[in-house]
Specification:
binds protoporphyrin IX containing FE, three-stranded antiparallel β-sheet, alpha+beta, Cytochrome p450
Length: about 400
């Protein structure tokens, strides 16, 4: 059963990113491999060292932070400079803390109650659009927006997917960059609709005025002071809201259906109420399997593995947590210090981890009484992260 679960899950990343994952598998023989100015990091301790001991250029071209920063305008969470950004990061952490997550929880438990109801009648449910609806509704609630959940999720998915494609080498890169710019504009318009009050996550300041052509280009001009403080704050709000939407939606849409499919195929429903299964599923699916980063200064990530300023590091989260060789085991799980590495490490570790775990736990608990099985699955070949486009389950109990 475990073999079936792993085989199905392999399809999701091999079909969506065939060359990349074949290459990573081929290279994983060495803990850290240098290819010119790029280091491919598979080893757990080196992955941890890269995230915690090497100063990182958070807005470099080709990194997650860089993509968001350029597309969403200056002010994404990835750029930690300035008091205002630090305050914004604290506010986000507060909203995603224990009390904040409990406040948000009814958003998805209500959707689970409604959308999973057909299972009780012997019907089928597609978990992929349900994950998108949960992701969109949660992001809207987090940002205090009255946006349609599907529309917000689709805009954040498109922004994530086009930004990822724009960084892949190849002939279509310029076209992808133009698409990414348009997708970012659509997302920015949704997260900062005209006339809204200040973004609740970042407090006062309000969104950029509609038609402010600087928003979305991320050329850094406002932070150089030509637009005055109001413009700078507006751009910060837009960037922060878009960053949150992209980070929350793309991971949720990838994580929930993949984890549910593992439980269906692996016959793990008896453990669905145990928190440890959630951690094991997040470990083995590693929803963000690869973290591209750039070193801002030199250091060492492992014995005899120097890193120089400007080196690109491909941090393979899925290998760092043994996703490729250790199946999810709710009886004998991997230690928490390993499984939590799927959320990164250090000062920039994922602030949404608690929310993500709670959402997955609630989904599994809602599904468990029906003992569902997968009846149809299709891969989303355009998504930024390995994801199911459709995952239809049917109750067996
Ligand atoms: C299973 C779901 C998720 C996974 C696997 C995941 C994973 C990650 C990882 C690996 C990072 C980079 C950490 C680092 O550089 O050390 C990150 C950053 C981030 N995540 Fe998540 N994430 C998930 C869900 C969420 C959710 C639901 C939210 C928001 C509600 C969120 C918000 C963020 C933000 C804002 C950052 C940037 C933090 C910063 O740069 O300071 N994530 N996430």
């Amino acid at each position: 059963m475990t073999a079936t679960a792993r085989a199905r899950d392999r399809r999701v990343y091999l079909l969506s990113h065939p060359v990349l994952f074949a290459l990573l598998a081929a290279l994983r023989g060495k803990p850290v491999r240098r290819l010119g100015r790029t280091l491919v990091v598979h080893d757990r301790e080196a992955y941890l060292a890269a995230l915690t001991r090497i100063p990182l250029d958070r807005t470099a071209e080709g990194t997650t932070g860089g993509a968001v920063d350029r597309l969403a305008g200056a002010g994404g969470l990835f750029d930690q400079q300035g008091d205002q950004h630090r305050q914004a990061r604290r506010d986000v952490a507060e909203r995603l803390g224990a009390a904040g997550v409990e406040r948000l929880r009814p958003v998805w438990t209500r959707l689970l109650d409604e959308r999973l109801a057909p299972l009780a009648e012997g019907g089928a449910v597609d978990l992929a659009p349900l994950a998108a609806e949960i992701a969109g509704a949660t992001a809207a609630a987090l940002l205090g927006l009255d946006a349609d959940p599907f529309e917000l999720a689709a805009a954040a998915q498109e922004a994530g997917a086009t930004a990822a494609r724009a960084h892949l080498p190849g002939l279509g890169r310029r076209r992808a960059a133009a698409q990414a710019e348009r997708a970012a504009e659509r997302l920015l318009a949704l997260v900062t609709p005209a006339g809204t009050a200040a973004c609740p996550v970042v407090g006062e300041g309000g969104p950029p005025a509609r038609g402010d052509s600087r928003a979305g280009h991320g050329d850094g001009s406002a932070s150089r002071g030509d637009g005055g403080p109001a413009v700078e704050r507006g751009r910060g709000d837009a960037g922060l809201a878009a960053t949150l939407a992209v980070a929350a939606v793309n991971t949720t849409v990838a994580a929930l259906p993949r984890a549910a499919a593992w439980v269906c195929d692996g016959g793990l429903w008896a453990y669905a109420r145990e928190g440890v299964l959630v951690d094991e599923l997040l470990r083995v699916t590693s929803p963000t399997p690869l973290l591209p980063r750039v070193a801002a200064a030199g250091g060492e990530i492992a014995d005899g593995c120097p890193v120089r300023a400007g080196d690109r590091m491909l941090l393979i989260a899925r290998h760092a947590v043994d996703a490729h060789r250790r199946d999810p085991d709710p009886v004998n799980p991997a230690p928490a210090r390993i499984s939590q590495l799927v959320f990164g490490a250090g000062t920039h570790a994922c602030p949404g981890a608690r929310l993500a775990r709670r959402q997955l736990g609630d989904l599994l608990e809602a599904l468990a009484p029906h003992r569902p099985v997968v009846v149809r699955a299709g891969v989303d070949r355009r998504a930024a992260l390995p994801s199911w486009r459709t995952l239809i389950v049917r109750a067996t109990a």
